[in-house]
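Final report, closing paragraph on structural work. Over the funding period we assembled a curated collection of sequence-structure pairs, and we close with a single example.
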Amino acid sequence: MVRILLASRNPKKLEEMRRILAEHLQDVEVLGLDDVPAYDEPVEDRPTFAGNALLKARAGLAAPRWQRCVALPPSRAQNGS
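Its predicted structure, as stored:
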């Protein structure tokens, strides 16, 4: 099973990502911040949604549990471009 960390506590975002991925992939589990051990979350100080999303993804990856994962930038559909 592939586990994906969505660096969010927003239940609507989590459900949307689970739904989208379930339509295209099997054996994928989407985890939110409340599903993993706590880690220091960064201040969202980037000027764009995409910048803040990447900042949060990198912070999540820096947490010991996620050292073997890859951070992907948000898609154009996600950042409103």
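The chain has one domain: 2-79. The first helix runs from residue 11 to 24. We thank the funder for supporting this effort.
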